[in-house]
Fold these 4 entries.
Entry 1:
Amino acid sequence: MPSPLALTVRPGPGELRSLPADPPRDAEGLPMRYVYRSDAPLSVDEQQ
């Protein structure tokens, strides 16, 4: 099964970041993460 792919045509300011910052890998070795563009990392509330 192919992996999903997202692409921004016109990138905004900021650098590419990943959530989580150090993602786990699936059975095929691919990182399980969301990639986003931002000047600063998002904060994650882990007490849900």
Entry 2:
Amino acid sequence: MQKEVDHLTRNLMVLSSLLYLISISFMSIITETELSFTFIGMLPFLMYIISFFAIYNKGLVKTSTTWITPLVFPLMFYIVWNTQTIDVVSRMEGGVVAVLNILFSYAYNGIIFLFLRKHHYGELRKSRLAHKAMHYKQKAEANQNIIEELRNELDHVKEQSKVNSDNFSVKLRGIEDKCKAINFTIGRVYSDKRGGSKDIRAKLRIQKELYNQFSQITADIKKHHIDYLLDILSKLYTELTALELKERQVLGQRVLDKYKDEQIITILAINDNEPVLESYTEAKEVCEGLIKFVKGENY
């Protein structure tokens, strides 16, 4: 921060020096007087420039001090001229010189304020850009954390979905509960009051006949049940996968999804408070795992 302040002060000094040199050169030319004589006449202006940096360092630039001080040194010059004690000053037109010094001092104020304002807005823009960059960085980090959490949750779901001889019966009966939960959600989301109908719900629901027999099969699973079980699981998987289609593909029209053309399972998740997407994902994963397990297991 100190380096920033020093850089700004150095620029102010360079600008002030240029303004003063341009001012006395201009006055020397238009009044056709020697530069040394003009230098003496413009001393009030020089004194104000020097005092300005004292005002600036004390943080009083935006106060009335900045507008009162330009009057002080020309007034002192006019008093000295009026006493006729200094020969070189007494040969000048005191009133005119004093007024010129006041005008140059206020013009200097205007130029310096414009410079400081430009610098201020430049720093403000940098600050806003830095703040925005920090905001996006924090947002990206937050999103990364969310992605990591979702990835861990997905890994956990996949781990839970793995099928083996110890959990085979539990997994099979678990699909029944998840399919029922999905069908309940379809009933709520595509209710008559929401624009659904009995025919629409029938087209979207998973057939009860496909999962109602799981409990009976798992109670006494035999080798001759395997082909039958594979057939049921394959049909069930097909019906679960159908929920990833669009409304117009299954129903021939759009019912709830008027604009975005979302998948049916997404529409269910958006329009219901129950975790239907979780039930659907687990049911599909388990169903796929059961099919692979049954095909590879020897009974």
Entry 3:
Amino acid sequence: MGILAFSIAEVRTNTTKLANGRQAEMRVSTSFQAIGWTDERPELPTHRY
């Protein structure tokens, strides 16, 4: 039995012009994290090159 953990993250940046002529940068970020247990063993390479 082993621990399975991974994270996924995304960051998006958008620059827009405001009504008063100034520019604004908007940054949106989303992240996911999953942690759990697994009975599966990782597949190992059979040959070394």
Entry 4:
Amino acid sequence: MKIIASSLTAVLICISATAAFAQSLPYIRLNETDKKATVGKLSDQVSVSYDYIHNLGNFGDTYEPGTGVMFNYGFHIPESYLVVLRTGFYSHKLRDGADTGFASFKVIPLHVGGRYYLGRNVFMPYFSFMNGINFFMNSESVNGKEDESLIRYAFQLGFGFDVRFSRNFGINLNINYNNSFYDAGDIYAGQESAMTTGFEYAGGLTYFF
């Protein structure tokens, strides 16, 4: 899995470098009207992305990498900020040989945060921060246990970029570090705390309006 994560990171870096070079070209064939509408401006946006989550630490030793779909709505605040709301769904499968009593681990995030854009042309890199709550659901019990559900705080730090192909359409790619406090543990009972940490690699389509 380390090879997969490294490969995805390398691909994202290569795409970022290519997109940056493309910015020096004639605005990726945008017509004159679209150029005037996009250059130097942020706009509201909605996007959908496919996400791959590479788990770290004990969580990564227990669960396979997760996959899912995320939906984002962003509204801009002049000059370089975007407030973002996001939700979606992703799931993890239990690794062979691991035993938590459940075969499936599902997450529904409900997050709010923002982006700070470093550029506002066709190629628009940004830093981001998100936080909110994760709804965890353990299901598909292997020993008769009832399904479990938890609500926990989560945060995310990341870097990404938008590339606008026209006035209204573009793509988004990003890498994020995820952390959610899954179990606080009990120091008096000798139970260690548990966190769901990992790197999230996401890519999708964006509609600007």
